[in-house]
Each structure stands twice: as structure tokens, then as C-alpha cells.
Amino acid sequence: MARSARAQEEIRRFLDIEAVQVAELDLDGDEAVLRPGPGSPPVTHGEVFVLVRQGGRPVGTLLGRVPEGADAKAVLAERAKAVLGEQAKARQGSEVCEPPYASVVVATRERAGQLARALDSLLAQDHPRFEIVVVDNAPVTSGTRELVERKYAERVRYVHEPVPGLAVAHNTGLAAARGEVVAFTDDDVVADPRWLTELTAPFAADPGLGCSTGLILPARLTTPAQVLLESHGGFAKGFTPRTYDPARPPGDEPLFPFTAGRFGSGANMAFRTAVLRSVGGFDPATGAGTAARGGDDLYGFVRVLAEGHRLRYTPSALVWHHHRETWQDLQTQAYGYGAGLTAYLTAVLVNRPALLPAFLAKLPRGLARAHALTAVRATEGGGAPGDHDTRTHPWPRRLSRLQRRGMVYGPVGYLRARRALRTRGEGAG
């Protein structure tokens, strides 16, 4: 098939993807409870993406189809018990320690409507002691400031950062943070009420912990782009808690700690404030809003691990993310992810050249592993039940090509971003 014909076929299949309902199902006790996802209508019939909870905690996801006229709760509860079974009980965590005082940093730019939704969910957290810092990044209007001053002045601190770039904004938030732990999330999320408690409590339990990450699930699956992204894993990293310890490198991560994309994402991460400050925060030449296009969160993960601190993935720390909605969004996202990946690796090696020998030694096995994972992603089919791998749509080759092009561009983008910062007098690294 000629490339143009193949591309047209990919677009046709993309446009044929139907919307999926989002719901939550709590199996605690004798009576299951079914609720619509954040911002979603009540479940009726058709395909449903379900977050399954046990005792309120996330334990798995599944895709279920509810026949017209059937009892949605009964159908989905039966499927959840059949698919997850004892697996769900095994994933229940232990009691959460008293969480430390935390600062929540939300960087934003000209999205007051989304920001208000995020702030409402953050103010509803059950965490006993926390503050919220909004960093208004290179604003062109006063919309964000006016929103915070009008509606949230008593509970939210507003900070202005004129230099564009997500990492720059995060560093500004880090400097303003008063908490022992600083958590970061985005303006396009809805945080689960226990998100901050679950994300920060591990720091009280483990003095050697430098970073924690959590689970990210889709708030809506109403467009083909949103469904396609989530059917290939989205931002989720599974439902099994895991600690990454540089003193005991994981055997299934040959490029550890350089496989930072496996650890979590910037929409749901927290750091021990003193540790993140000690490594210089995020590299300002990485992240959205710079020529590097991304990678600031991955840079932070690796820098903390490289200093000997542990990282904890905690799936009970949940945020609901509003995925991008269009085919063009997906193309931009694929290219940006590729660029951010190699940009952050370049940043790590530029700022910590002593890590280069270890990186080069691990590279051959890491590339073989990456090739195997890419081959699996490009095929149809799914993963183990409940592992948040519900591929029902093929991954378009164009998106894979764009990601590879982004990877080639990433180091160039990073160096351009550093040069731009030096021109502004901000420095980098």
C-alpha cells in the first residue's frame, strides 16, 4: 500500500473510533457502588472504561460492554470480579502514615476555566496540612490572577513567572514552597480526594525517599484521540506499588535509572523539597514551552535517583487527566514526547557528565528492550487483565514515526533552549 493510501486508511480507522463512557466501581462490602467518572454522565449502555476500587483504593481498570436495557452496575460488577478476582485484594495497600506538610504547585498559562476545576478538586483534599501555589507562566492576560484573587485568595498563593517554560515555572513554585514535600500537578486534572495524602505519606514512612509518583487515568473518553491514547496505556503505570532503589537496580529495567518514563509523569509527582532543591530543581531548558518540548519531569526523576534517593510509585494516589482531543493534538504530543525523551537524557548527561559511562554501558541492552516494547505496542491485542492495557485499536504508524523524529530532534531542541535561556540571562542546568 502506498504511503498516502496507508495514511488515509489510518485516518479512516481513527475517525471510526467510538466514544467510551468512564465510570468508577467500588466493590467494597456486599453492595457494589457505580459512579460516573468526573464530569461524565451516568452510565447507560455501550462500552465503559471502569476504574475498580476496593475499599476506596484503585485496584484495576477494565473495559466492559453493557447491553441496552441491562443493569449497568450488575454487569460491570460481575465482569470486575471475574477479571480482577483475588488480584484486586492483593493490591490493597497498608495503612497510610501521617503525611508531612505539603506544598502543591500548579503551573498554568491562560487556562482559567480548567484551572478552576483543578483547584476545586485540590481544595477538597483530605490531607491535614497543605498549601497550594499557582504559578502563572508568561501570561498574556490577567485571567489567572483575577481568578485566584476573586475565588481562591484565602487558600491559594499566586506567583507570577514571566519566563516561559514548564520547568522554569516548576522551579519558581519550588522556590516558593513551604512544605517538607512539594507535589506537582497540572491544570487539566481532577485530583481524587485522597490523592495528596496517598502521594505524600510514603515520605513519612521512608526517610530515604526522594520522589513519589501516582496513577493518572482519563477523565473523559469522548473523542477518538482520547480513546486511542488510553487504549494504549495513556499515562497509567499499572496498579502495583513499586519502589525504585538505586542501591538495588531492578533487573527488568536495563537502562535504569535512565528509563524515567516508566516511573511516572509530571501531572502526578512529588519530591522531598530539600532533595529537589539540592539537585538544582528542574533543568529550565527542558519542558513544555521550550524548544526541548518536554522531559522536565523525567529529568527530575533521574537526578534524584542518581543522588541515591529512592522513588516510590503509588497507584492509590490518583488524578483524572483531561486528555487532548484531536488528531492534531496527538501528532503534536507524539513528536513532543519523542523530543522530550532525548532532550532530558541530554540534559542529564550535560549536567552530570559523570553518568555518561554508566549510560553508555547500559545502552545496548536498553535499546534492545525499547525495540521489543515498541514492537509490542505496534500490534493489536491486550495485556494481562486489570493491568490497564486494553488495546482495542491499532497504534497509527504516523504517530510512531513522529515520535522517532522527535527523538532525533530532542538534543538539538535542548541545546536551543539552553541558548535561549542564556540570551535572557537565566542560565541552564
Short description:
The protein has about 425 residues and is of the alpha/beta class.
Structure write-up:
Strands 5, 6, 7, 8, 9, 10, 11, 12 and 13 form a 9-stranded mixed β-sheet that branches. The chain is built from 13 helices and 13 strands. Helix content is 41%, strand content 21%. 48% of the residues are buried. The protein is an alpha/beta fold. The model is unreliable at 373-386 (pLDDT under 50). The protein folds into 2 domains: 18-90, no CATH class; 102-351, Alpha-Beta Complex (Spore Coat Polysaccharide Biosynthesis Protein SpsA, Chain A).
Task: Please name the defining characteristics of this protein.
single chain, 429 residues, alpha/beta, Spore Coat Polysaccharide Biosynthesis Protein SpsA, Chain A, 2 domains, nine-stranded mixed sheet, four-stranded mixed sheet, 13 helices, globular
List the helices and strands and how they pair.
Blueprint: H1 3-15, E1 21-26, E2 33-36, E3 46-54, E4 57-66, H2 72-84, H3 86-90, E5 102-108, H4 112-123, E6 130-137, H5 143-151, E7 156-161, H6 166-176, E8 181-186, E9 189-191, H7 195-205, E10 209-218, H8 224-231, E11 242-244, E12 269-272, H9 273-278, H10 296-306, E13 310-321, H11 327-351, H12 356-377, H13 397-424
Helix pairs in contact: 10-11, 11-13
CATH superfamily of the largest domain: Spore Coat Polysaccharide Biosynthesis Protein SpsA, Chain A
Order of helices and strands: HEEEEHHEHEHEHEEHEHEEHHEHHH
Helix and strand composition category: alpha/beta
Q: Give the CATH architecture of the largest domain.
A: Alpha-Beta Complex
Strand content: 15-25%
The helix tally amounts to 13
What oligomeric state do these chains adopt? single chain
Radius of gyration: 21 Å
> Could you tell me the mean pLDDT?
89
CATH topology (level 3) name of the largest domain? Spore Coat Polysaccharide Biosynthesis Protein SpsA, Chain A
Report the major sheet. 9 strands, mixed
